Request: fold
Amino acid sequence: MRRNAAKLPTPDGVDALIGVNYWSRTGGPLMWRDYDGDVVAEELEQLRAHGITHTRSFLYWPDFHPQPDQLSEEMLGHFADFLQRHIDAGMWTIPTFIVGHMSAQNWDPAWRNGRDIFTDVWFVGRQAWYIREVVSRFADNAAIDGWLLTNEVPIYADWRSRGIDTIDAEAVTAWAQILIDAVRAGGGKQAVSIGEGAWGVEITGNDNGFRVRELEPLIDFFGPHVYRMEDDLVRQHLGAAFICELLDIGDKPVVMEEFGVTSDYVDDANAAHYYRQVLHHTLLAGATAWIPWNNVDYDAFADREPYSHHPFEMHFGLVTSEGEPKAQLLEVKEFASRLAELDFGGLERPDTRVGLLVSSFLESPYAFTAREDGPTVFQVARQSYVAAREADLPIGVIRERDGLPDNLDLIIVPSTKALLAPTWTDLVRRAEAGAVVYASYFNGVHANQRGSWWPKLDELFGVRKSLKYGLIEPVLTDTVTLEFRSDFGRIKAGERLTFAVGGTVEGRSHLPVDATEAEVIAVDGYGQPALLRRRIGSGSMILSTYPLEYFASAVPRVNPEPTWLLYQALALEAKAAPGIRVDDPRVMTGVMEHRDGRRFVWFISQSEQPVTFTPVTNARLSRIDNGAATTHLSLPPFGVEILAVTPEEIGSNGERGSSSESRGVTR
Reply:
């Protein structure tokens, strides 16, 4: 299975597009009114010295387009100087046109008069005219390296506040086509995207009208904006990465267009940790450009909207109002340096034979299904992704709607209420051909047609279910313990794994079964089958009667939890174990390959404390700077280490090393 890592073209001499969302400290969103080119030059010089080559700039719409058929020559003159300052600094910018939303405030051109941004023909025409005219003036400027139509236009459209239950996706797509056509009509040949945040139903399970699949043919890259509030540290660190995986659609590059932290929410050390985690995890998940929010703090404008009513918005900067670099900026600089050292332009993600199946109920509005179903698919799939990463599996995301790739050894179907009926037939065919298919039973989170919609479940898994119509088998305890009756992967017979239980009343349930053709691998605390395997053809169908991934997804601060050990065992069962692993879920690994044949492995700690470990591998690991071989590693809190990988035969067992912490942290 191929995993996307498409890249945008970059200017000569630029290893990777490392940028920053930019407003000058002279005015924030109103910087063009108080424009000071010398201050801009100072700010750009500081950014460039820290490895940043690009800005994402914003044409504050009310100022640049003061009348329906008029542009502000004063503002355009300032922007021309702004571009020259980039050229002087050896930098580039990606301008954003429709800046009607910014930092918790919406601003309209004075002449909008309540017109709908997507469906009012005259208003759409004025937007297209504005974009075409601006592009025609600057398309050939050497500082321009892309275009964005808007900034978070789903918020600016504000459709829910106008009493509209849904937004017209067809109108949104047509609007995007018209504005992109305007960029091309103005002579813009650079890459273009929308700037809407990639918050569509294909990612979130909630339909905001911006359908990723429908917009994909129009754009040159995806640009997720990720500012998640979470209740689990590992899910927080991997949240942006999972979104990047979900955006593996159409082989388009994924640009981390916005992410960041306000210093009002977090201390300096933890802000740096967050940046480090997001940068490296999204790289391993397919992102190939990064533009954090934002360049500087705005303490001078505490009495100005939006900062007067959302004061935390003042302090997302990589630089303080006094011009001092924050720890986040130093992380960006270090990341840029590492990418240059590795020759980022040649790095690719290796193919994988391990897939995480994401139900089409995430994105498809099937008749008579509940609105909660889509977001629940996201919630569960993300937790499964976390467990797979803790097990060091090179996981790839499979969208059911796109069909199953042929070259998979392990297919994980986590806590899934519903797949399309033909998908189950395909899964059986894959198992017969040699794959291991794992699925965990799930009733869903609500009472509408409560139960797993799995056709002929008994035949699929070689069991006989014991369910009463309309009722569930509730899990009334806060934990579930599985005891293994036989060896399974590295889990020995007699070992026990205990899982936390969370979720709704309907979700906190399980499937009582008796084994018919299946063999019982593990039982629950009542001696009932909990993990079963039906061998079929040259592969197997493995059933968990408990929705372990859903349980974990609904429990705060749960990770790491033992599902990673189950996934590690499944990979061994499927002969798809990773070539490099760490038997400590607090340290995650990921591998990238260079086109010249070199391979590199990342070790990323999720521990608040220093951690020492020995990677398990049959390869030689060595320092990139001096080539010295290494077998033992120590990482600081939330630290990252990258090593070179050289294949090496070391013995019949194909493994070397063990974790100093072993697996006990999850028991």
In short: The longest helix spans residues 121-138. The chain has 16 helices and 31 strands. The CA atoms of residues 353 and 408 lie 4 Å apart. The first strand starts at residue 17 and ends at 21.
